[in-house]
Automatic annotation (TrEMBL):
Residues 46-302 form the Helicase ATP-binding domain. Belongs to the DEAD box helicase family. The Q motif is unique to and characteristic of the DEAD box family of RNA helicases and controls ATP binding and hydrolysis. This is ATP-dependent RNA helicase.
Length: 534
């Protein structure tokens, strides 16, 4: 901690939303002020009772400890984080010979503009009317690529750094990365990791200290699908060998008389990789040790740590289906006399896509058809329009590859008669009386909350990504409602399949999607294609 920080002595004041009396509501019992609870009830009446994730996270954030939270998508993690930070005492800093001055007390770091704007919208609703004219004194949204961004961060005064969607911000390699993946991570680290490293160079956390090389190595963790887990001694040797090169800031010791930095990481996929990075590679946040049991906590609301099956990573209220779009021969489907491209359901097993008389021990894989990744796929958009109409969708969200132009995609879908709206930081999704399909790039969907959403459409394999990304994208539906229950939701994935009559092979996209379902322990159901025969 720099000398400038040591020279500043914090003075505790009341929170942004002051407390008025004894707790009466469930949120007040968690530590929020009555005024904040009243604002919450008035502006968000659907938030009646705290979810289990909120009941665990709010007291943890209000306590003097570091926190890692893993909870299902749609469980209210982001809102709970904002509520807890608004309830924390504000700080004034006294300089020698100067009057006390306010300082920035907390950061919430998010991976997308859309999620940042969602936080801002919540904050505007939760702050009383008398403070609305001075919102900059309560909360600000800062982009780090803006020239004035760095000067506004207040590194010397912050008391809490929260990483919402921590794994997306850090983008750590997997449990057993290849040499290329390790090199890419070390050479091209994410802006989120670079920022966190700069903070850790100057600030000590509650639980930071000597690295624990066994952090995140659970002995009883479940296998994921067909994955073969190496023996325990091999796993530990691999992890320890990977930590010989230390390219990040070491955890600083807590200096007497100083207030440590509180580090919070939340995600639906805050797994052993993240905990190993924080505990073994850096020592920034160490959990599950005798030394740190009062200064750090790991909260797992999914049950995966206790041995639940891989399917527990997603709420059971979400149904999954996958449509494969083929190309008939060498001619466009319109030239073949078809109004729509050939659409079929993904077989439950990739080998089932091959006729029985043509099967071998392992079905041969052929490259999937389709244009270049940056080119909008008209056949997939036709299939999307069909699926939207066939399911009678009232409120859906279509997620596209990051390299697709949203303006051109919107125009193409409007030409097909689909009522669409592009989601942007300036134009957030809101409930509609008439059917609507929201459009967004898949890279911006993490943490986004769209009220009343019933369907998510993943268009193309680049939008699907891997099992972790699929978990987050699918989690835009089946959010916890006012009654504490999740409404049913549906995820429809649209992929490119064969070109021509390649009946003796399966497409590479089909193989990838089948492997993803197996990894997550999911069995996709069929989509009703009876309208195609009408």
């Amino acid at each position: 901690m720099g000398s400038d920080v040591l020279a500043r002595r914090p003075i505790k004041m009341g929170g942004v939303i002051p407390s008025l009396g004894k707790p009466s509501s469930a949120f007040e019992k968690l530590g929020l002020s009555p005024t904040l609870c009243a604002q919450l009830t008035a502006t968000m009446p659907h938030v009646a009772e705290p979810t289990p994730a909120q009941a665990a996270l709010i007291p943890a954030v209000l306590s003097p400890s570091d926190v890692i939270l893993r909870a299902h998508t749609g469980s209210g993690k982001s809102l709970a984080l904002l509520l807890a930070l608004l309830a924390k005492p504000r700080l004034l800093f006294r300089h020698a010979g100067k009057a006390p001055a306010a300082g920035i007390s907390a950061w919430i770091i998010v991976p997308s503009n859309e999620l940042a704007e969602q936080y801002m919208a919540w904050a505007r609703a939760l702050v009383p009317t008398q403070l609305a004219t001075s919102m900059d004194a309560v909360i600000q949204c800062v982009l780090l690529n803006e020239p004035e961004g760095r000067s506004l961060l207040g590194l010397e005064t912050i008391r809490t750094v929260a990483l919402d969607e921590a794994d997306a911000l850090l983008q750590l390699p997997g449990r057993f990365p290849s040499a290329k993946q390790v090199w890419r991570h070390q050479t091209h680290s994410t802006p989120g990791l670079q920022l966190l490293n700069q903070v850790m160079l100057r600030r000590a956390t509650y639980s930071g200290g000597e690295r624990l090389l066994t952090a995140g190595l659970e002995r009883t963790g479940p296998r994921r699908g067909p994955e073969k887990r190496p023996p325990e001694h091999v796993r530990r040797a691999q992890y320890r060998g990977a930590e010989k090169a230390q390219d990040l800031a070491p955890a600083l010791p807590r200096e007497p008389g100083t207030v440590p930095l509180q580090l919070i990481c939340t995600s639906a996929t805050a797994n052993s990789v993240l905990r190993h990075f924080l505990g073994a590679r850096t020592g920034w946040l160490r959990t599950n040790t005798r030394e740190t049991r009062d200064t750090a906590c790991y909260l797992d609301q999914t049950g995966l740590t206790d041995g639940a099956s891989a399917s527990a990573a997603l709420p059971r209220e979400i149904s999954h289906t996958c449509l494969v779009v083929d190309t008939p021969g060498d001619a466009p489907y319109a030239d073949a006399g078809l109004q729509l491209p050939p659409i079929r359901n993904l077989a439950r097993s990739a080998s089932d896509a091959v006729p029985r008389e043509m099967r071998t021990e392992r079905a041969p894989v052929s490259p999937s058809d389709g244009p270049e990744e940056h080119v909008i796929d008209a056949a997939l958009l036709e299939a999307l329009a069909f699926a939207f109409a066939a399911d009678g969708v009232q409120s859906g969200l279509a997620l596209f590859p990051p390299r697709w132009s949203m303006r051109k995609t919107q125009a193409a879908l409007e030409a097909l008669g689909v009522p669409v709206q592009v989601v942007s930081p300036e134009r957030r999704a809101a409930p509609h009386e008439s059917p609507v399909l929201y459009l967004l790039q898949s890279s911006s969907a993490r943490g986004l909350d769209v009220p009343g959403l019933t369907h998510v459409f993943l268009v193309g394999m680049p939008a699907v990504g891997d099992a972790v990304q699929y978990t987050h994208l699918a989690g835009r539906v089946a959010r916890i409602g006012r009654d504490g229950r999740r409404a049913p939701g549906k995820v429809v994935t649209l992929l490119r399949g064969h070109k021509g009559q390649a009946r003796d092979t399966i497409s590479s996209n089909e193989e990838k999607m089948s492997s993803l379902y197996k990894r997550l322990g999911l069995v996709p159901g069929p989509f009703d294609l009876s309208l195609l025969d009408a």
